[in-house]
C-alpha cells in the first residue's frame, strides 16, 4: 500500500487551493509568488500525506468516508486492521473492515460480518455495536466479539463470530451473556445487585489479550452500573468455564456507571479508559488502573487535559492502540457521535505517552502525525 497519496490528495487539495487563492491575492503577477505557490503546493501535499485530522471526515484510499465506528484496531502480520460499525445508510448492524500499513491510509476490505449473518430474535433483527477482533494463534482464527443488540437496547448480549482471514467473512457463532449463562443465581433476596435479572447484560465492550496469551472481555454489565471482566476460553470463543467469581471473572468499577472500555497494558499494569453512561452525548473520561487483569481497579480521574477535557474533546472512548515502534506510546481512539446522522460520526485519534510514574495525559491536536512520538 502506498503512503498516503489518494487520501493526501483529497485532503490536501482544499488546503492547497486556499494557499493558492490567498497567495494570488497577495502577489498577483509576481514570479516570486508563483515559485512560492509551487513550494506551498509541494509542502502542503507532503504534509497532508501522513497526518491525523481528528474530527474531520476521514476518507479511505478510494475517497469514501471510513465507516468503522465504535471500532478497534489490531496489528497482524505487519498489517493493521480496523474493524467497526458500518453505519452506511441502510447497512446498520454490519461490521466493516479496513486495512493499512501506516495507520493514515485505509483500504476498505469490505463487510467483515454482514447483517444477514446475524441472528433474528423474536422475529426482529439484531445489530452489532463496538465490534473488536483478536487473533487466536492456537486455532489460527480471527475471533470477533461485539455488543449484539436490538432496537430498545434490552437484548444486551455478546455476539461472537470467527473467520480464517482477517477481512472475513466472519461466521456467526453464538449470542451469550458470558457470566449469567454459566452462573446459577439464586433468589432475588440473595441477589442484591440484581445479577439474576440484569447481571449478565452485556453492552459496551472490548477484548484484550495479555502478554501470556490469555484473552479477556471487558463489558458494561448489570444494566451498565458495574463493569465485568471475564477470562476467555482457549479458543477465545466464549468465557472460561466453569465461571468462578474472582478467578475467571470479576465485578469491577462497581456501581461506577462506566462504559466504552478501552483497555491497555503498560509497565505490568492494566489500564482501562472509560466514559460515563450518557448515550451518544460525550462526557468526561476516566482511567482505572490495576495490577491484575481481573482487578481490583482504582479510578484515577480524567486523563484528558486542556480545553474540552470535560467532554473528552467531544468524543467517547472506543480503543487504545499501542503506537508503532516506540513502547509507552499509545493512540487514544474515540467516536464523536452524530446521533442524527450516525454515519457521519467522526473519529478522534489522539497520541499520548506514559510518564515514569504510570500516569498519562491526553491533549487535543488539530492535526498530528506519528513523529510526535519521536520527540523527547
Ligand atoms: C452509548 C454507547 C454506544 C451506543 C449508544 C446508544 O452509551 O456507548 O455504543 O450504544 O449508547 O445510545
Q: What does this molecule look like?
A:
There is one protein chain. The chain has 376 residues and is mainly β. 12% of the residues lie in helices and 35% in strands. It contains 3 helices and 21 strands. It has helices spanning 5-26, 31-49, 195-199, and strands spanning 69-76, 79-85, 95-100, 107-113, 127-136, 141-149, 157-163, 171-176, 205-209, 215-221, 226-231, 249-252, 258-266, 269-276, 286-290, 298-299, 304-305, 316-322, 329-336, 346-353, 362-363. It has a 4-stranded antiparallel beta sheet, with no helix packed on it. A 4-stranded antiparallel beta sheet has the order 5-6-7-8, with no helix packed on it. Helix 1 packs antiparallel against helix 2. The model is unreliable at 1-48 (pLDDT under 50). It binds beta-D-galactopyranose. The site of beta-D-galactopyranose (GAL) has 10 residues, from strand 5 and strand 13.
Helix-strand layout with pairing:
Blueprint lengths: L4 H22 L4 H19 L19 E8 L2 E7 L9 E6 L6 E7 L13 E10 L4 E9 L7 E7 L7 E6 L18 H5 L5 E5 L5 E7 L4 E6 L17 E4 L5 E9 L2 E8 L9 E5 L7 E2 L4 E2 L10 E7 L6 E8 L9 E8 L8 E2 L13
Helix pairs in contact: 1-2
